[in-house]
Amino acid sequence: MLSLRELQRCFADALLAGEDAHPTMRVAGTTAADRLGIYRRTIATNYRNALGATYPVVRRIVGAGCFHAAVDAYVAIHPSRSGDLNGYGGTFGDFLAGHPAVSDLPYLPDVARLEWKIDEANLAADSITDPDSVLRALAGCPGDRLPSLLLRVDATCRMIESPFPLLRIWQVNQPGYDGEMSVDFAAGPDRLRIRRERLGVALERIAGGDFAWLAALSTGANLAAAIAAAQHADATFDLGGGLHRFIGDGTITGILDGPLTGASGASD
Amino acid sequence: MSNDALPAACGLGLRAPHVRQVLAERPPVPWFEVHSENYFADGGPALAALERIRAACAVSLHGVGLSLGSTDPLSHAHLDRLARLIARVEPALVSEHLCWSGVGGRHFNDLLPLPFTDEAIAILCARIHQAQEYLGREIAVENVSAYVVFDDSTFPEWEFVAEVVRRTGCKLLLDVNNIYVNAMNHGFDADRYLAAMPADAIAEIHLAGFERTDLGLVDTHGARVAPEVWALYRKTIARIGPRPTLIEWDVDIPEFAVLEDEAATAEVVLAEYHAVAS
User: With B194 labelled, which of A47, A110, B179, B213 sits at a CA distance of 20 to 30 A?
Assistant: First the structure.
């Protein structure tokens, strides 16, 4: 008799082997090998459906057949490591970049990366925004401490930069879109902020300096480093304008750390 | 919000395509069940919708990914997320499956079959204890449909299930459709299975539809409950009395009214035996 661990390993190997493979553990009945096929098909369908829900635009662009084949290939190389299928598939965009069947669609990996960030924005923690208290806390911060300040960015906020007109590609592939379908692929690059708002996830183009500044802040850079990144992208970057705009619209929700904590609380 | 018990009435599995309608129309469904993992997120609209529904009625959390029967270590990350969700929605019941889902770190995200052996019972019982201790509450475990049986099995499935429940003192989520599917696929008497189930431990009953294929019955959760399964359900309720019952539908999800119609069929059976019980 196999130990349970040995049996589970044999079963897993049989699932991963092709349809013709016979299980090495002993299973009753002549239809055992065929019956394993029921599991194989259910498992494949689960992953196709799960990634189809996360990547509806990719699926629409390439068609169901191509999408399913890509998912099957992805699962074979990057198997799930968690019992929570909702967190699976975050590297699908990177995978597509090397997937020969879609090599004629160079923008596709970025579409997938965008859709993953939209999914993340949908699942991120809710935040309470109080722009006035953030502005007050900032105004009360001594000047010499400003450079090391860490600003808290809304947990639903994501940034993406692409050489392709990503927003346009995404928009014309939305269900219910019935406008002009043409996309000028030379119209890139796009720098987008993805953020969950009251009515759902919203995408917005952000200019180069502001984009670099927000992207730096959201990856944990302090204010001085974020300003440097912004000025590198755009020498005319306007810090005051950025602060008012992104505190005002709730993208920056507080002062995360440092010598002074705003009304919205200390580190979390 | 109290920790309401599930009423001995027919609830519905809440799936994403129906959430908007349920929130807008507030249909008179006595309780809802959701897949726990679908609400593991930190925040967002799905979780907010569940909290609104929970404010109106009891909710049961049904896990599909804990992999209780695996020989890999139980995932503390998974249990942490589940514990957080439990604190958030105060469910009437938390359930999982008598199955495994992965080995060697690889997950298949499916309900895979166990051999019915002493070793499997010991492993399941230890992990059910561990989960219950971690969560600080009792869980219910569900019998699964299986398409293969292992020659190594030394018990019939019904003795295996009853023994796990007896040893752990956990609750049983009895899936009547799974009993029928397994009885047909593996050639045993469903009545015999039913007779071996510990009546007092049954906290919930699942009903769903299967698909007939050349290879046998496949538990797709994609059809109406079959007449044979309704008959088995009636026998179950006749034996154990009215219990919280759930209609599950996971693929080719129909209009909400179809689920309500299935629930009405279950309510007829429950009403019959409520009358007997009173």
Answer: B213
